[in-house]
Amino acid sequence: MTAQTAPFQICRAAPLRRRYAAAAEGQTAQERAAVTATEPDLAALMTAVRDRQDRAAFAALFRHFAPRIKGFLIKSGTEAALAEECAQDVMATLWHKAHLYDPARAGVATWVFTIARNRRIDLARRDRRPEPEDLPWMQDGTEPDQAELFEAAEENRRLAQALADLPEKQRALVQRAFWGDRSHSELAAETGLPLGTIKSRLRLALDRLRTRMS
Amino acid sequence: MAPYPITHHLTDDLLMSYAAGTLPEAFALVAASHVSLCDECRARLGAYEALGGAVLDTEAEAMTDDALERGLAACLSRLDRPAPVQRPAMRQGPLPGPLADWIGGGLETVRWRPLGMGVRQAILPTSRRATARLLHIPAGVAVPDHGHRGTELTLVLQGAFRDETARFGPGDVEVAGQELDHQPVAEPGVDCICLAATDAPLRFNALLPRLLQPLFRI
User: Do the beta carbons of residue B176 and residue B182 sit within 8 Å?
Assistant: First the structure.
């Protein structure tokens, strides 16, 4: 394969390689307001958990994500009671790994997804998951600038909208590709669609997302 | 910065499956190793994980307030317990962190077996859905001409090889499907070390390797 373009520009290599000081000096009024806001700003909540071990912010994140993690695990074949228990595991992991949270690197939902995915892989006891090396952090201790953070949040919002706007069949397939503990060929067997159809439908969906994100 | 100018990358299909967590171990090992070396694929993986995040975020399973608050209380009570310590994957010479972790050390811990013509291999323990092996090909030596029944991923860790399609140097990954018949030849100079994974036995075109195939589990 020769070089390909990224499917959509959520992450860039340069911001990925920047280090942010783990402990911020106090928080902004905006962040403080977000903790009690009705529509919680997830990134600000997560920053509060990271910088001040803020349990109220954690509770708000739990109320937002626990039903989503439970739904995700049920859709990948986990029984409801176990899924609820695992949602607690995932949120506890989020708390314990909070010092690694970097808002310029990934949205909170993305981060929760990766932890939930790893929990699902453990549950299935089929294949372990080797993880890539961590990026070597540069020692400049700079904070991400606000414009960059705003842009990152905006990109995640646009991606969610683009996903919602996909034609039903394409969206359903993208969802199943991420929910399930199934490979693309297993998806083919399960849906009765030929593997070629699965792959081309996924490709169409990704092309559409790419167009919307460009 | 990434030490190598990488020109051969993982496919969208592989990266999306790695992000979704559905690759067999052997393929995931190649993906994790390549991403460790390649900023571009790390960024593309990030985009697929963001898509996973969007999928997770858009649908919630209804939970009663009562169930939610009980779950929260149970979760809060666990937060002060010590967290499990995770050791970050560390690179060992030409072995990317996830690979060094998998084999439990650097190249010196690898137990090579001769394959003939000076070529050596070490099969790595993985789930049975696909197999992974390290290959050591002396500089200038050719691997027997072969085709593929499934997918074969070959990640170069040291040295370089050429086949009918291109040249592959350190960090490059060749994704070979059923359509490709090739004869990789290690470049002169440095011995070539690769991580190769396949989900179906290779198809050798000469009689001798075919006879030896079951013996070497290729």
Answer: yes
Rounded Cα–Cα distance for residues A131 and A124 (Å): 17
Partnered with residue B60 across adjacent β-strands are none
d(CA B133, CA B125): 9
Report the chain B residue with the minimal C-alpha distance to residue A84. Answer: B71
Distance CA B218, CA B201 (A): 6
Q: Which residues of A touch B10 (CB under 8 A)?
A: 1
| B119 backbone dihedrals φ, ψ, rounded to 5° | -75, 135
Consecutive 10-residue runs of chain A (214 residues): their mean pLDDT? 48 36 35 35 92 96 96 92 96 94 88 96 89 69 72 86 93 89 77 86 91 87
Contact A131, A114 (CB under 8 A): no
Interchain contact, A163 vs B29, CB within 8 Å: no
Residues 6+ away with beta carbon under 8 Å from B154: B168, B173, B174, B176, B184, B194, B195, B196
Size of interface A-B (CB pairs under 8 A): 241
Residues A189/A191/A195/A199 CA torsion (nearest 10 deg) = -140
Q: Which residue of B has its CA nearest to A111?
A: B53
3 state DSSP class of B46: helix
CA distance B42 to B86: 21
Strand partners, B175: B153
Q: What is the mean pLDDT of each run of 10 residues along chain B (218 residues)?
A: 78 93 95 96 94 92 93 95 82 96 95 91 92 96 82 96 94 90 92 94 62 61
